[in-house]
Amino acid sequence: MEKLKLAISKGKILEQGLKVLKNSGIECKENPLISRKLIFNTSVPYIDVIVVRASDVPTYIESGKVDMGIVGRDTLLENKNDNHYRLLDLKIAKCKLVVAGKKGKKLKNNLKVATKYPNITKKFFHNKGIQCSVLKLYGSIELAAVLDMADVVVDLVETGKTLKENGLSQIEEIQKITSYLIVNKASFKLSNDKIKNVVEKIELGIR
Question: Among 40, 48, 55, 42, which Cα is nearest to 9's?
């Protein structure tokens, strides 16, 4: 039997995504949160779950080697691959993408902005008519503003607690973020019945 491969981003999306799948009657036979395996059989014989880094989900979908994915909207906005359809907003891993900086910091020309989202950041400031240079970082983005390595940062915020504890505050919200179920366009045609069945299960699971 040709199996559907469903990739899920590591971290909070994986934790919450597995709950959605379990509620939908799709349960991994081993726990991906504690296992070092990368591919997991599930209670639905034609579905395997694959655990990958968030930024890699669209790449695997684009390649056609993976049929479906659960990934944050931030990753989809940052990645320029478009060989997928967005089937469902799962409304999990809710947060927002914001511009943040030290108190009183204003958005003006020639800003230096630290972020792991250079494409989103450039587009946001371009649309506001503000020139900026972007410094790409991979972790502890707030530190760049704390150390004055950057004027402001663009990062995901859930509660704002980390910003506050580091003497930073939100300047502007760019986008509310949730996670989506996406599917490779070719897979959607070739395995339409199976994919529709998965979508129906998940729709029931998120009600």
Answer: 55
